[in-house]
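Worked example 4.2. Below are the chains of a multi-component assembly; read each line carefully before continuing.
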Amino acid sequence: MKKQINKIAITGGTHGNELTGVYLINKFTKNPDLVKRDSFKTIFMHTNLEAIKQCTRYIDKDLNRTFTKDGLNNPDLDTYEDILAKEINQKIGPKGSDNPNVDFIMDLHSTTSNMGLSICISTEDKLSWQVAAYVKECIPEIHIFSWKGDTGDTSFVSSIPPSGFTIEVGSIPQGVLRADMFFETEKIIQTILNFFELYNNEKLKKVYTEIEIYDNVKSVDFPRDKDGNIEAMVHPDLQENGYYKLKKGDPIFVTLDGEYICYSDLDGLYALFINEAAYYEKGVAMCLAEKKIISI
Amino acid sequence: MKKQINKIAITGGTHGNELTGVYLINKFTKNPDLVKRDSFKTIFMHTNLEAIKQCTRYIDKDLNRTFTKDGLNNPDLDTYEDILAKEINQKIGPKGSDNPNVDFIMDLHSTTSNMGLSICISTEDKLSWQVAAYVKECIPEIHIFSWKGDTGDTSFVSSIPPSGFTIEVGSIPQGVLRADMFFETEKIIQTILNFFELYNNEKLKKVYTEIEIYDNVKSVDFPRDKDGNIEAMVHPDLQENGYYKLKKGDPIFVTLDGEYICYSDLDGLYALFINEAAYYEKGVAMCLAEKKIISI
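Applying the procedure described above to all two chains together yields the following C-alpha cells:
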C-alpha cells in the first residue's frame, strides 16, 4: 500500500441516463483545475457517449456488467458496449495489468432508489477500503455497500484498475439532474482526491482498521406471474426507506389488488436498492444486506 | 350535454416507461369487472405496446404529440408512432367525427415532477369540465391544469374523442411502479366512472358552474450554453414543490458552479412540471401557470 498514486480516473455516464455523473464530467471539462492536485494526475471521461446522447442506460447491453476478464478477452463479443468496454479497458487498464494506466477509479452513478449517498465496493484491495473509510469519516451519512455484483467475476467499470469503487446517489429519476445530489456527489469526489493528496505526501493521520458495511446477502425479485409479469409493487413503507432494517412480518410488497406480501426471511437484514428502475429487467426489486463491522 | 354516454376508454402506456397506467390496464385486463358499469361500456388498452415492451417513452416520436388533425390525415407521416396514431384514431375516434367510437377518454400518465395528482385538460368541451369539477369535489387535493399543449393544434391522445383529459401523477421515476400513486390513480378512474353512471341515470346532484384551475402561461427552459448544453439545474427549493407560487427573486436554478439564478417574471405565477425528465429534450424545465377560478 505504500506505492505512490500517479493517476486517478473519474468516470461518468457509464449509464447514459444517470445525469449526475454526466454533468459533473461536463463541469470538470470546463474547469479541470477543480480536480487537479499536485501529487497525481486526474483524468475524467464520459464512458458511454452514445447512451448519454440517447439518454438511455445502454445501447445493446449494460456497460457496467461488461468488464469481466473473459468478456474483455473474447473477440466474438461485438455489441456496442462490448467493443466500448475493450476501448475503455485499454485507456484505464488493462484489467489485471501490473502496470495499469490508472491507479484508482471512481465511477459515478445514480439510482431511483431513495438510499442517499453510497459507496458500492466490490474489491478486496486494501487501498480502496482505506479510501472508503476516509470518506465515511469525512461524510458520516454515506453508506458502504459491499457487493461483488451479479455476474460472478466482477464486471463493473470500477473493476478495471487495481483500486476503486462506484459512487451511487439517489433517489434520482433516470434522465433527471438533481442539484442537491449533484453537489453531494462532487463533495465525495473532492474528499477522495484529498485522500490521495494526503496519501502521496504521507500526511494521512491514521490507517483505518475497521469499517461499518452493508454486506450483500441476496436480492429479492418482484412477485411475478408465470409469464414474468410483475404482480406486486414495493410496499409504501419501504418505498422511500433505503437501508431499511427488516423483521419478519414487515409488508414488503403490495399486489395490484392491494394485498400485502410480508417479509419472511432472516430478521435484521437491511433492504437497499429498493425499486431501482434499471433492476426491473434484472429481476431485482431490492437487495438484502447484513450490517457488520469488518477489519480492513 | 344531455347525450347518453355509451363508451368510455381508459388508456395507459402512451409513454411506455410510465408504468402506473401500464399496470392499471394489466389489472383491468385481469379483472374487467372493476371498471364495469351498467349504463355504459368501458374499454381499456395499452396504446404504445412497443414502447412498453422496451420501457421507453416512445420509439420514433412522442405518441402524445401525434394526434393533430393534419398529422392524422397525412399519409407521408410514417414513423412507428405516426402509423400507431392512425390506428388508435380509428379505434377510439376518429377525431372530429360526429359519431366517434368512444365518448370520453382518460389517458393515464406519470411525471418525474413532484406535483401529486393532476388532471391536464386541453379542451373547451363542457362535459369534460363537469367531470373534472366532480373529481375535484371528490378528491380535493387534485390540481386541474389547463394546457393546450406545445404543438398548436391539440395533439394529445385525450383529444381524439369529443370529451376527455389526461391524468398525471408524480413524482414517479420513469420505469418505476409506485404503489401509493398506483392506487391514487385508480381512485381517480373509479371516481370518473362513478360520475358517468350518475350522469347517465340523471342522478348527479348538481351542475358545476365554476372551478379552480392552473392556466398555463408559458414554459421556462433550463439555462443552456450556445451548443444547447444545460448549464444550471432546478434549484433545491423548487425541486420537490410542484404548484409552487413564485415571486420575483426566488432562486429557481442553480448553475453547475453553485450560483443561483433567480425568478424575474410576474409575481404570483405557479411552477409545475418542475424537472420532468421527458421535457429536457422539449426545452422545458418547468411550466408557469396562473391560478384562477373560471366559469364552466
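Take a moment to check your reading of the output against the notes. Chain A has two domains: 7-208, 218-288. The longest helix of chain A spans residues 179-200.
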